[in-house]
Here is the input.
Amino acid sequence: MPNRPSTLEHAVSDRIVAFGRLLRRVGLRVGSQQMIDALRAVEVVGINRKRDVRHALFGVFVSRHEDFDLFEQAFALFWHLGAADSTPVQDMLPDLGKKKNPVRSRVQDALSDVFDTDLEKDARQAISYDTFATYSAVERLRRKDFADCTAAELAAARRMLREMVWPIAPRRARRLRSRKSGRRVQLRKTLRQNLRFAGEFIDLRMQGPTTKPRPVIVLCDISGSMEPYARMFLHFMHAITGGLDRVESFVFGTRLTRITRCLLRRDVDEAVAEASRMVCDWAGGTRIGEALREFNWHWLRRVLRSGGVVLIISDGCDRGDDGLLSREMERLRRGCHRLIWLNPLLGYDAYEPLTKGMLAALPHVSDFLPVHNLEALEDLGAVLSGLERHGRTGPPCVYSDGMQLAPETL
Here is the structure.
């Protein structure tokens, strides 16, 4: 870092910089200038008394009242640990009380990220040049089913999920805009601009089509059969909400609940916690047809414009009326550009869509894709980025391996 104070030991300076990165990870406004000011402040007060160091860092890093608790928890946890210790972070955390504290949990997760990053850095330095037998934990995690992951693996998967991008292809707007490379002459503006040339068309103003962001609607099943995947899918919905412009999110079990405003929160833990509090039918039964009917009657024309994409995340295990499900799927298909069904069970080789819910829905689905691991979510991003190359109707149903399923075979 430039302008680093020379009187501080490198170990202390590195620890202060790491502490600033931890505060930035939990949500404090910490930039390069704050890092430099923190190093200079600790240089002035010295490192003999922990209380003086705490006050110096507090005065530099904390600028908002809501950051006070985060700083206190982060300082207590971070300076209690040893930076070079390889003991798991959960085993090193001090016992600050038995009552569950969401702020402390947030700091602990961020602190685990910091230590995991350091361990991954050391592991990369220890890799030999013989890559034939090299073991890649990241590659294994990408292909591991969410239902089989441990708590630590799910945390790592959520961190990787936040770094993913889904570059959905924009849709073509109907109205024409002024463009230098347009194909049509904008006659009215051309006449106004050429009045100074005695009516001679010297400066031609052109117009052409433009693009708009394509709206995305996510309907996620949170019934009992989807419980092993539901929490991870909420993180996915939060990531796609932050990465795209126009996203509407709904969850359904026996009823439909809109959680778009909850997922607009920047902190993913707070967003997921608030969304969970809003849902009253978590891990219950499933009535997909009734949920889609409510969406079609109350939300379809309010949130889904022309050219929109609908993602339905469900295993298709339905206890409702399959005839109602078929009718509502048909209506939903007519109102969107592409209807994509994401099924976590499709990741199993022996899976066949034989439930009555899937049999009723598949004739109206454009794409039938798995969503059981990170690799499947990456494949979904490739599908979304290539939407402009598909027509509005699309194939009857396309599996991830390219196999088509015609309606008459159901």
Summary: Residues 158 and 235 are 7 Å apart (CA to CA). The first helix runs from residue 10 to 26. The two ends are 64 Å apart (CA to CA).
